[in-house]
TrEMBL record:
It comes from Ceratodon purpureus (Fire moss). PANTHER family: STRESS UP-REGULATED NOD 19 PROTEIN. InterPro entries: Stress_up-reg_Nod19. This is Uncharacterized protein. The keyword Signal applies. Keywords: Signal. Residues 1-20 form the signal peptide.
Amino acid sequence: MALRWAMVVLLVGLVAGVSADCDAKRVEKTETFLSTGIKIRPGDVNNKFYDVGSPAGSFATVDFNAELVYENGDPVPLTDVYLHHWIMFEFTIPTGGAKLVGQELQEAMRGSGAHAYHVAGGKPLRVAAGREVRQGWAKGGETRHLNSTIPAPYGMVSGGEGLRTQWVLNVHGIDTRGAKNRMGCTECRCDLFSGGNRSRVPDNYPGGLFCCPDESRCALREDFNADDASLERTIHLKYTWTYIALDECVIPVQGMGLDVTAKNGVKGTVEYNVEGHCKAEDFHKPECVDVRETVIESLYGGDLVYAVAHLHAYALDSTLWGEDGRLICHSPPMYGHGTAAGDEKGYVVGIRHCNPSLGANGSVGKIKKGEKLRFQVKYTRVDGPHTGVMGVLFTKIAQEGGIVQSVPLRGSGNRKILN
Ligand SMILES: *[C@@H]1O[C@H](CO)[C@@H](O)[C@H](O)[C@H]1NC(C)=O
Ligand SMILES: *[C@@H]1O[C@H](CO)[C@@H](O)[C@H](O)[C@H]1NC(C)=O
Ligand SMILES: *[C@@H]1O[C@H](CO)[C@@H](O)[C@H](O)[C@H]1NC(C)=O
């Protein structure tokens, strides 16, 4: 009931504007932003949070792309700086409160628990009283060839009447120039890293995010002259934001993340290790493929408008099936074959997305609340073992009866608490 009531409030807010012709092609605006400069030296790890610019007011995001660039605008190849991930979050600012900036922002975000943003809906991430995630999305090295378009008439709604929000960007980059073991650095193999605050490294943890925190360093080759001042560079995350006006034509989508390491009702670890080792020529042998699978009941029901996986190097495939066995989405990685930015050999440079509810048979993409979804991820053991790999599926669902995510848990005025 609370949900329906809040939808009425939301709709009244939307319809209060000028009415639009919903059959007309949507009018998109695009703005490009540059993040704060990030200083890098060979071996450096940066994993900080920035208060960043966004389009003004209330709007619906329909596309968002990003890449790392040098100060002169040249793209940074993944072989120079591996982009482990970037995340954009929109947080509510409590009544009478201010934006979080500087050290306060770092501490609030770090304290909020690693991977919290991957957890499927339901319980929003809260970094402090009154500061809850309202919108957000994330990608990794695949960002350059990943299609992030949310097709019409859908959009990811931001802002809202009487609501103050702040956009926060997190960039996790690992400078692997001169690295002793470049892929080992990208996998955050603990034995290769030093420094940073590694107080959270769990026991028997061979590699992953806890071993490559902000200000840690990955081991360099002994013959590499890391002191060469010309190797010190400044990079930025350049992001391009496409959005539309928020009117009654926009159907809001709800984010839901599926983590292959999660089980129904049990939070996953997001990262996992692919044990074993195979030689390249044994690539096709079944024992050289690591298969993970999980069944998760969908928190939401409605049209699955968009889905895309997040996978690391050595990933082979990812697939989502419905409870009746129908294939909902196949989201495989794309690998580079050369040296240029966007085509780095051995790196995941893109991941194929799906629009299950928009296909020739849209019923494939209709998901029931509580439907048991089966998600499978495959990695190769070639060159293994591999540490800190991920198998996540980010989905956007047009929920029957409206969305939960874009309404704050605790708002100002007469807004209602949802849940
Ligand atoms: C991205 O996917 C959409 C379908 O959702 C398609 O219409 C569009 O052409 C694609 N963009 C590119 C650049 O391939
Ligand atoms: C390291 O992080 C822990 C939390 O994981 C924190 O309690 C501790 O104060 C930090 N240490 C330093 C030196 O920042
Ligand atoms: C659409 O897909 C559903 C589920 O797979 C199937 O039951 C139905 O027969 C399909 N319809 C058509 C027209 O192909």
